[in-house]
Amino acid sequence: MLLRECVGKELRLRQARNPRYSLRSFARDLGVHHATLSRLLRGARAETRTVVAIGTRLGLGPADLRACLSAEHVDAVSYAITRDDFHADSRWLAVVTGVQLDDVNIVLQQLLQSRRLRMTSATEWRLEGVPR
Q: Which of 1, 12, 15, 51 is the most buried (most CB within 10 A)?
């Protein structure tokens, strides 16, 4: 589950209870800047500390937080692999995505095991179902 889905669901619940409840109010309640929250809801990837801070304030347990972090990492690495300037190197992925190298390698293993990633050569990696 991506954090933006969880946050969006919670915002809709709060707005259903109080139609005047705004994004700024929600950001204040979560302890983050409203622009950060807006970017997150529009699809920007969240940094690890932002995921942990927001998830904790939403009452997510450790397992849910790990799932959110994992989903964010998979999303970031998958996007980076589809970039035109992509380099088939986990260190490059770590720098570009801001995800720690160990976590990048975990994501790559998950993508390989699920057959969503094909490493056709040392320099050519393809995500299945994504045109390149």
A: 51
